Records
---
Amino acid sequence: MPTHPSDLKEVARDWAIRVGDPAFDDWDALTRWLEADPAHLAAYEAAVHSADWAADALRAPKAP
């Protein structure tokens, strides 16, 4: 279990990346991790939001 906020962010980012994989099937483990601590859900949601923003930025048209 991460004890430092940056460690929690890293674990949350890892989950967000894994869930984005079409082959992801470890929903039970994700659910257990999210339910283990209220801070996990907040970190996961922030990671998903960051991933969405980054994906949108990569899809944006490039400036000439």
Note: The chain has a mean pLDDT of 81.
---
Amino acid sequence: MNLYKIGGSKIFIGTRVALPTDLIVELADFVPQEPEWLPINGWTNAGALGDAREAITQNFIDADRTLTIGGTMNSAEMPNVFAPLPNDPGQIRLLQAMAGCANYAFKVEWGAGCVSESVVTISVASPGVITWPGGHALEPNSPVVFTPNSGTLPTGLVAGTVYYVREAGLTPTTFTVSASPGGAAIATTAAGTATTITATASPAGQTDLFYGLAMSRVKNGGEANTAQMLNASIKPNTNIIEI
């Protein structure tokens, strides 16, 4: 069991998106967002994020009791506070989202200050095995990104793409990866040309992805020694994917 602090967390805004007709998003829906994410900087207070089931109640005379059953899923608005940064690209896009009526893609990396990073080696094999010297302490389904230095990754892997640690074959210093949580292992078919490869991994279950609306744009008041901040709420309109 691990505990993660809120400090070091990051929030990102992607592009405008069309809501799926069933209001259900999958991990694949966020692959096109990988080169589009902009961090919204100046984040000083994070609101709660998650789904809650609406309660349906019925009163029974003969039992002198109210019965509750589960209704539809709904996400409360996520209130956030930012220090105003007029030139920050992420805040500029967030304000644009508030001015319109379109849904945007959002990503929250909780406890991003706990990200692990190391130079690794990747074998050419089926599956390709990543060796992390000194131990990685990663759990199954932890998202990991590979960055080559002065060259390319082994064939089968793409720089900057998010992969996921597989439970099969996981050891303290080695692991294989898949394109989706719990997916098939990725094989590497030819050696890359990079002089070194850096792996960057976030804790499993600490990244949330969803489509939603940027709802409000409010500047707080206060007494003389109160800093003026930007209060911005984000309302998820789909399920929230946790990876």
Note: Residues 89-99 form the longest helix (11 residues).
---
Amino acid sequence: MKTRGAVVTEAPGTYKVVELELDGPRQNEIMVKMVASGLCHSDDHIAQGDQPSTRYPICGGHEGAGIVVEVGPHTPGFEVGDHVIFSFLAGCGRCRWCAKGHQNLCDRGATILTGGRPDDPDSYRLTMDGTPVAQMCGIGTFSEYSTVHVDSAVKVDKDLPLEKLCLLGCGVGTGWGAAVNSAEVYPGHTVIVMGIGGIGINAVQGAAHAGAAHIIAVDPVAFKRTTALELGATHAVATMEEATEIARSYTNGQGADSAIVTVGVTTGEHVAQAFSSIRKAGTVVVTGLGKLTDFGIPVSLLELTLYQKRIQGSLFGASAPSADIPWMVEMYKAGKLELDKLVTTTYTLDDIAQGYIDMHEGKNIRGVVLFD
């Protein structure tokens, strides 16, 4: 069938809406009519070439939700009309990592930048003028319709707003889990969150849920600082220098228990600033992405060893999406997880380029594309 989708043909490049041909679902696949898709910075990394796809053209989008319109043959567990949220990381449920409860590290994650199927990275479902088109993370939520593997889909109740729940497919779980799982925030902790966008704002929520006494949000944009204060931050400042001083004032000069780095384009210097802000045996959690070609973090090896500090990477908040997405849905239903205030601006598919301009200008916590 024909569908319209936002595609980038080279990096650096800009998303443009084009007509695409979409194959129907095969075994263990479903076709979904998209309802909403978040505008995540990771899709911009693909467009800018910071984290290049192995194939262009590519249809962007990996944080989305929609309604099943077709189910592949011999595919139990799904039916037409089901509402689903996509997990940008497919979980096979059988590899070493899934078996250990680390579904975010599933071996199928190795294929997400190919844009093919999670179980067959050389197989594609989209074409443009006869040329195969990759799907971001094998999903491609910037398309009106998408054919995806069921390992990337989580069913949810039909009476819930997909335009809000779509954020659970990446940004919410990544930020919340960075605080709760990776930073291991404990009641009474002092936490710094560096960068208040779609990830950082949920790290603030996660730290608040975990019982942190002091949550210091850092962002140069005033409205983002205000939003952080509304969603659990106790302090909001423009620089890491200010945040570090506040953290030390509450910890007898020691520093924060943890610092979570969620800057859109993360550099070694950002990590170093976070490293300087934490106490002995403290933790820096890095969930922001940097350029693929950037190496090196300018930290003191002596301080790393003698102060027993830890620098911890965090992918999708160290979560297990098939378990944690339904859990977060229940928190949202109970009023314990804020989603509504995360959406700053909504866009049509044709306005997606403007959405990323707004992101770069710091105007959004999260922009969301709404489909008709």
Note: Residues 321-333 form the longest helix (13 residues).
---
Amino acid sequence: MKIYGVTGWKNTGKTGLMERLVTEITGRGLRVSTVKHAHHATDIDHPGRDSFRHRQAGATEVIVASPLRWAVMHELRGAEEPGLTALLARLSPVDLVLIEGYKSAPHPKIECHRAAAGRGLLAPENASIRAVASDSAHPGLALPLFDLDDTAAIAGFILAEVGL
């Protein structure tokens, strides 16, 4: 599987770009999966649901299945958070996995940047960032610069980078 990341500071448009990229790339006939890293305690389950009760009772993994989808929830129960490589190994094969977050991981990435977020670029200090998608100009930037809303061009760049 090919992998490519979308990274950047909080509130710079990463999730919106990820959503648009999935739509664009799947529209080109490729199969795409995603990995999203969260820095907080994320829970996709809700108190009172049967699956929540199973986890609260001590289950390590709970699978919820329906005619439309299935999901696995794995409780770490004090164990270390698995690395990106371990998580990728759990995915079914697809053409491309888009990864949101994981700023310091070595896979290639495009950085999202919004001037209103008030943060500088990560790219000058992070060699894994191959391009920037921004809503503002960055004179002197030594990387390709895309308009943050030019999804087709960004998708084309990513697909060329990974050889798809």
Note: The longest strand covers residues 2-7.
